[in-house]
Specification:
2 helices, alpha+beta, 22% helix, five-stranded mixed sheet
Length: 89
């Protein structure tokens, strides 16, 4: 299935601390999360171990929300959260 990353998603990704490669990886291999308005959502937790905005974080969680149109996944937006999470099973 093709992945089309909307320009809004790319703008938010840059502001929030992720990139096109991570967005695609989350869609392909992330775990499903609840989404509203008929959309789908996936997330993935990455080791971060660095500072962001002068605060140190162990991990970041990237959440991607998208729709499917035929054979194409179209992103709607991306969120990034920083902190420490337990392993998702």
């Amino acid at each position: 299935m093709n992945i089309q990353i909307d320009s809004h998603t790319l703008e938010r990704a840059e502001d929030r601390g992720t990139n096109e490669n991570e967005i695609k990886e989350v869609i392909r291999t992330g775990f499903s999360i609840p989404a509203k308005y008929g959309r789908l959502g996936k997330a993935m937790i990455y080791d971060f171990k660095q500072k962001r905005l002068n605060k140190y974080y162990e991990q970041k969680r990237v959440e991607v929300f998208y729709t499917i149109d035929g054979e194409t996944i179209i992103t709607v937006t991306v969120y990034v959260f920083y902190g420490k999470w337990e392993e998702v099973k």
